[in-house]
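Both lines are retained for reference:
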Amino acid sequence: MSPSRPIFKRGQLAKALADDLAGESLIDYSSGMFLAAPRRTGKSTFLNNDLIPECSSRGWLPVYVDLWADRGANPAALISTAIGTALGQYQSGFEKAAKKAGIDKINLLRTLSWDFSKPHLPEGTTLAQALDVLHAVAGKMIVLVVDEAQHALNSDSGTNAMFSLKAARDQLNRGDRPDGLRLVFTGSSRDKLANLVLKSKQPFYGATITPFPLLGDDFVAFMTGVWNQRLAATNQFKAEDLAYAFDLVGRRPEMLATLLAEVSLGLGEAGNLGELLRTGALNHQAGVWCDYESAFNDLSPLQQAVLEVMARRVIDQQAFAPFSEQTFAQVNRQLELAQQEPNATAPNVQKALDVLREQELVWKANRGEYALEDSAMAKWLTRT
């Protein structure tokens, strides 16, 4: 028997998003659903274990491609391969299915020349054409899920692939028949994902970026039960301590598991997890701050100071006004504490924010507001 690990199911969220895709909510996702959340917060796990099975249960055909898993590959080729693989399911009786679907002669000849032993599309075939054929022979609405879609923007071919998907969407959702395609895009960089929707020259102009719901108290309760089953009855984790730890690591399941493993392997009693966390005994040993520390150390003093001021505003639940005199004074104060030149001016702060956005530490909202990409970083920056 193959080993298995407990998987937290998010069926209600999957149903809600599928209802949105079906057009059964107030928001119209026919132009595309764009879900953004920091990396390692459970997006891909949810897509594969919850949303895709929900789509299948509704009689839709989900097609999944992850642009992060093979970042050295051409995004257009990855999408093409995923569609080609889906077409391969219909190899048996393909000609009969194609004729029944009413594909015209030119398209039929093209489809019959495809080599189903190879999961790619023939040269000269666009993604729009391939999705049109797939919809016709499958007889189902296609839900194409592109995970970490912002990586498509790293190349001209990837950007062109996004325009081809837009063409497919327009072709399959013409309004004279039931819709044939839904597009779901996820991204760990809100800024980069927004590059697909914000301007009129971008492929999905007018679509909305939706924050992907992070795991909450129900996941904490699930994890508490899973880990306590492995421990003696006299050595149990407390749910409130796990909730504190989970928030501390930015609601990242793997990082929470690392913390719990450190304790379970003898660093302390499970019941003392909260105390160990609050005293900082686990922070560096478990390595939960490594990503933050590495990113922070690569920044200039001014960039670090801007980030620290932003973090303080998050903790104090105050808005961050990047070009106010108060912000300049606070940034200069941080620079003085670091024994650096206090050089906070509008141009300098703007340059610092641009770099922080490039590093995916800060994002800019549609209306021009700036915020931390990962709010948990605020707790690390202000921990002392």
User: Anything to note?
Assistant: The two ends are 48 Å apart (CA to CA). Residues 195 and 201 are 10 Å apart (CA to CA). The chain is about 50% helix and 10% strand. The mean pLDDT is 84.
